[in-house]
Amino acid sequence: MADHLEASVTLPSDPASVSTARTYVVSTLAEWGLPPETEAADTIRLIVSELATNAVQHTFGQSPTFTVALRLDRDEQLRIGVTDSHPRFPKRLPAAVQQDNGRGLVIIRWLTAECGGRLRVRPTREGGKTVSIELPWTVPARPV
User: Fold this and answer.
1) Which residues lie below 8 Å from residue 39, measured CB to CB, with a gap of 6+?
2) 3-class secondary structure, 58
3) Helix, strand, coil percentages in the chain from 3-state DSSP, rounded to 5
């Protein structure tokens, strides 16, 4: 297999794109060897849902699109990032705040840690940001 596999899709910042992002990621990972009916695929599906939802909801219309990028390095590490053009970084809410929403990053961080991975937020050169997760890859990838 190659040293790495990459895939990405750019979608409109619209609520309907969240489902498209989930489907894209799960089908790409299935091509790379991760069966969609596994617990790992379910966890990734939830993480991507939260990342895409944040890109749509919290950019306040200032990012017309968002990009979901996947990279699998040497059958060892999977990186999934969602990039938007809004400059504001996500805020960590205090635990005492009682809200019906705003917990997506907490969920992402917890799920990622449970899988032995980590969450990162980085600025882009264009002034936006990428929120990404890095997870150990435990499924051997099939050649594409």
Assistant:
1) none
2) coil
3) 30, 30, 40
pTM as predicted: 0.87
Nearest by Cα to 28 from 67, 65, 70? 70
Q: Provide the residue type at 19 as one letter.
A: S
d(CA 106, CA 112): 10
> How far is Cα 128 from Cα 124, in angstroms, rounded to an integer?
5
- In a 3-state reduction of DSSP, which class is residue 76? coil
Closest by Cα among 107, 106, 114, 121 to 135: 114
Q: In sequence order, which ranges of 11-125 are alpha helices (DSSP H)? A: 16-31, 39-57, 104-114
pLDDT tens digits, 4-57: 999 999 999 999 999 999 999 999 999 999 999 999 999 999 999 999 999 998
Burial (CB count <10 Å: 0-12, 13-18, 19+), residue 60: exposed
Structure tokens at 115: 């899988």
